[in-house]
Every structure is written in structure tokens, then in C-alpha cells.
Amino acid sequence: MYDIRYTEGALDDVQWFRKHDQNIILDGIERQLRHEPASETRNRKRLRPNDVAEWELRIGDFRVLYNIDEQTLIVEVQRIGEKRGNAFLFRGRQTDV
């Protein structure tokens, strides 16, 4: 079982969403990343090299970008945003990932 940790940026990101959406996101993170976060599935995939994170979790229109430390069994959530079309939005602003 993996421990899930959040960066300050990720905590700020999740606060931007409505409470109902926050619950959906946090429940999805708990359900999807606690066990086998490095297994690619329909909702989890490894990203191309970038400055933010190695992995992406899809929860509906929400996206969770995270890294995994296999030695210490820690998942570190880097950013939480939305995807609209081909655009990533963090706190309502478009960002390249």
C-alpha cells in the first residue's frame, strides 16, 4: 500500500474546485493511487517527459499529475486540474504539461 502526499501546489489546486468536485477528486485519488499506482490502466498513464510529473490519473474531466517513489512507496501528487479538449487548466488557467 502506498502513502499519498500532496505538494503545496496540489493542495492549492484542489481548493480551487467546488466542495463536491473536491470530494470526487480526493476519493478518486485514494481509490486509484493507494494500490499499484504504476500500473497503466484506462485512467492512469505514464506521460512524456515534462517538468511536472511522470504520471497522469484521469478522474472524469479532472487530471491528477503525480510521481511515484517505488523505494519508499510514496505517491506524490504534484498538480490537480481539468482537461478541456486538448488544454490543461490549473486553477482555471491554461498551462502546458
Q: What descriptors fit this protein?
A:
single chain; 97 residues; alpha+beta; YaeB-like fold; seven-stranded mixed β-sheet; 39% strand; globular
CATH secondary-structure class? Alpha Beta
Determine the number of helices (DSSP H or I, runs of at least 4 residues).
Answer: 2
Principal-axes geometry comes out as globular
Helix- and strand-based class? alpha+beta
| CATH 2nd-level architecture | 2-Layer Sandwich
Contiguous low-pLDDT stretches (5 residues minimum) are none
Number of strands: 7
Within CATH, the superfamily carries the name RelE-like
Average pLDDT reading: 94
Distance between the termini: 28 Å
Number of structural domains: 1
What is the string of helix and strand elements?
A: EHHEEEEEE
Largest sheet: 7 strands, mixed
Radius of gyration: 12 Å
Residue share in β-strands: 35-45%
CATH topology: YaeB-like fold
Tell me roughly what share of residues is in helical segments.
10-25%
